[in-house]
Each structure stands twice: as structure tokens, then as C-alpha cells.
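mind reviewing these C-alpha cells:
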Amino acid sequence: MEFFLDLNIFFKIIIFLLVTLVLFRLCYFFEGFSTFKFPTLLGIFVFLLIAVIMFFGALIQTHFVIRIKENYALAEGKITYYHSGRGRGQTGKVEFNYVADDELISNSFTENSFVEIPETKPDTTISYLVIYEDSLPENSYLLFNYPIKDSDDMLEYEELFKKGIPEDVFVN
């Protein structure tokens, strides 16, 4: 997986297209597929391309969450931007800052299969727990279910996470 992530965007596009072409060619084994008109074939190709891109996107998200689970660290983060996922066709987005290894890091993420962003606006005056990959601090998530209202909260969360990542951190 690291090999794929390190590839140039041009080569990633080539891989997406090749995988889509292979799937498209496999469709010719279905009876009557070769009799479809060009617009229908083009629609099927575009559908397959979108499916391949979504599959690789989910695979990459899963890869980064697994890396966090294998080698994680904790920090205190502040929300700098919040957009709820409320509404039709809307996805939640949050931007936040935290300090890792004496370096200020700004990160953002959209609502995904692993971390939910609350529909009601959280308190942006307090800090929240950030879990990040120790060897790659930019790979991180702000955890809304772990607010830090005073210094004792951070110590309590560090003690809790020494036993491992709790079940309620990641949705899946």
C-alpha cells in the first residue's frame, strides 16, 4: 500500500484507468454486452471508473486509520473551522490545530466511515483530544467525544489510552 501512496498522481490515474479497462473487458463475458450502443458502453465505463476510484479512496482511508491504530499518540487540539453535515448532500468538515513534537500542525478532515462529525456545533472554546500517527503527525483525527475542559481531562485520557484505543474512538 505504501508503494501506491508514494506514486506520482499521473501513475495513479494510469492505474485507475487500467483497472477500469480490465473490469470493462470482463463485462464482455456477459451475454449481449457487445451489442450495446456507444453511449451505454460509455456510461458503463464511467460507472466502473467511479466505482474503482471510490474503492481506492476507501482503501486509502482504511490504511491510514490502521496506521494510527498501530502507532498512535495523543495531543490537545483546537477547532479552527466547523461545518456540519446537516442538510441534503452535505458532508461535515472540521479544521483543527494541535502541537506534535514541538511543531504546530493544522489538519482537516471530512466526515467519513471512521469518525463522525456532530450535526450540532460543538463548543469551539474548549480543546478536544487529537489522535495521530506518531511517525506521521499529519495523519490525525479530532475526537469530538473526548472534550478537554481542564488539564485533568488530558491526563485522564492519556491513562485511558495506555490500555489501547477505546471502542468508541473509531466508528467502524
About this structure: The longest helix spans residues 38-70. The CA atoms of residues 47 and 96 lie 35 Å apart. The two ends are 20 Å apart (CA to CA).
